[in-house]
Amino acid sequence: MMFADTIVALSSGALPAGVAVVRLSGPAVIDVVSKLVGSVPPPRTACYAALHLPDGSVLDCGLVLYFPAPASFTGEDCAEFQLHGGRAVVQALLKHVASLPGCRLASAGEFTRRAFLNGKMDLLAAEAAADIISAETEAQRRFAVANSQGRNSELYASWRTRLLRARAFVEAELDFVDESDVPDAAAQAVWSDIDALVGEIDRHIDGFKKAEIVREGFDVVLLGAPNAGKSSLLNALAQREAAIVTDEPGTTRDLIEVVLDIEGSKVRVTDTAGIRDATGKVEQLGIQRARERASRAQLVLLLEDVGLDSPEVVLPKGKPFLRIGTKIDLCDGRPPNGYDHLVSCLTGDGLTELARAMGDAAKAAEPVAGELIPWRLRHVELLAEAVGHLRRAVEGERLPLELRSEEMRLAANALGTITGSIDVEDLLDVIFGQFCIGK
Ligand SMILES: Nc1nc2c(c(=O)[nH]1)N(C=O)[C@@H](CNc1ccc(C(=O)N[C@@H](CCC(=O)O)C(=O)O)cc1)CN2
Ligand SMILES: Nc1nc2c(ncn2[C@@H]2O[C@H](COP(=O)(O)OP(=O)(O)OP(=O)(O)O)[C@@H](O)[C@H]2O)c(=O)[nH]1
C-alpha cells in the first residue's frame, strides 16, 4: 500500500537527551534527505553529515541512515536522523521537514500502522512491539519479546487452516450431496476434529490468567487481626510510608495498594483493615472490603503477632496463603512454631526471605518460556467468539449444513481477526485447492 504523505516524528524519548532519533517514512524521503544532506547515503549505512537548512545554515551535524523500500521498518522509503538530543534541534528539524511538500508530523503509532498495512508485521507483532515499549519488569519484557516472535500467530493460523479445511469438506458435502463423493465417515471426522479444536482453544484461553499476572501484577493481600503489623509490613516491603502505622488497633480502614518489582516480577501488595468484630460503621465496611479483596487474591499473607493469641482469621476455601509471624523482635527465647515466615519490621529480620517467597510465588504463576497463551483481552474475546461459533457448529446436528458451515466461517474469521489477516479470498483458495473445479 502506498501512502501519499511522508511522515516524520521523534522516535526516541524525552528531551534533552544525549542523542535524538528522528524517523521519516514515505515517498518524499529521498527528496527530504538529499535536500538536507546534499546527497543520499548508501542504503542502511550510518553516515556522518551536516544538515543544511534552505538558507544555507547548519541545523546540526549527526548520523543519517537511509532504508529504501521495501526493506525498511514500514516497507516504505525510510530515513533516520540521529542528532544531538536538544529540544531546539529536534524542534527545528521537525518543523522544517513537516513544512516540506507532501510531509507532515506522524500521528501516534503511524509508523507501525504503515508497517502492518504493508504486511511487515501482523497485529499481534504490532501489539507485542507496544508491549516491549511499555514493559517495566523483567517478566513483562521477556513476555513481550517472546510474543513478538510470532508463535501465537502461527498457532492461530494453524487453527484457522484446520477450520477452513474442515469447512471445505462440509461445503463439498453440500454441493455434491447426491453424488456421495464425501463419505459420512469423513464428515464425522470433521465434527470430531472441530470438537477437539474447541478443547484446544478453551485450554489456550485458560492461560490468559497468567498474562494478566505478568501485566497487572501478582496479587498479594495482607490479612490479619488489628495491630498484627500489616501496615508496617507493607511499608517495609515498599520501602516508603505508604500506609499509616499507629499502635491503635483499627488504624487501616480502606485498601492500600503498593506495586513492587520483586526479582523482575510485578507484585501488587494490598494492606487491609484488621479483621475483628468491629462496632464502627467505617471499620465494618473496611473489614468487608478486606475479605472481599482477599477472596480475589492470588496469595494471602496471614499475619499474626507472635506475642499474642490472635483470633483465627478464616480464609476462603482453597485460597493459597502463608502464615506470617510478626514482631519476632518481641519474642525472647525459642522462635514460635507453625509459621511459614517470621518477620520483624523493626529489625528487618525475615523480610528478604519473605519478599523472595512472594517473588517465587509470582514467578510460579507466570507463563514459562515458550508457553503459548493469549495475552490481551482482545485476543481472548475473539478466541471465545470462535469457540462460541464452533460449539454451535458441532452441537447443531439438527441445523441445516449451510448454517453449520457458516458458523465455521465465522469462527475462522474471528481467528483471522486476531492477527489481522482475515481475507475472504483464503476460503476460496482452500476450497479450490482441495477439490478440483468442475468436479
Ligand atoms: N534506529 C532504530 N532502532 C530501532 C528501530 C528503528 O526503527 N530504528 N526499531 C523500530 O521499531 C526497532 C527495530 N525494528 C526494526 C524492524 C525492522 C527494520 C527493517 O529495516 N526491516 C527491513 C530489513 C530487515 C533485515 O535487514 O533483515 C525489512 O523488514 O524488510 C528495522 C528496525 C528497535 N530499534
Ligand atoms: N516491636 C515491633 N512492633 C511492631 C512491628 N511491626 C509493627 N509494630 C507495631 O505494631 C503496631 C501496629 O502496627 P500496624 O502496622 O499499624 O498494624 P496493622 O496490622 O496495620 O493494624 P490495623 O491498621 O489496626 O489493622 C504499631 O505500633 C507498630 O509500630 C515489629 O516488627 N516489631
Automatic annotation (TrEMBL):
GO terms for cellular component: cytoplasm. Binds 1 potassium ion per subunit. It comes from the Bacteria. Its EC number is 3.6.-.-. GO terms for biological process: tRNA methylation; tRNA wobble uridine modification. (6S)-5-formyl-5,6,7,8-tetrahydrofolate binds at residues 23, 80, 120, 439. Keywords: Cytoplasm, GTP-binding, Hydrolase, Magnesium, Metal-binding, Nucleotide-binding, Potassium, tRNA processing. InterPro entries: G_TrmE, GTP-bd, GTP-bd_TrmE_N, GTPase_MnmE, MnmE_dom2, MnmE_helical, P-loop_NTPase, Small_GTP-bd. It holds the Pfam family TrmE_N. Homodimer. Heterotetramer of two MnmE and two MnmG subunits. Belongs to the TRAFAC class TrmE-Era-EngA-EngB-Septin-like GTPase superfamily. TrmE GTPase family. This is tRNA modification GTPase MnmE. It comes from Pseudaminobacter soli (ex Zhang et al. 2022).
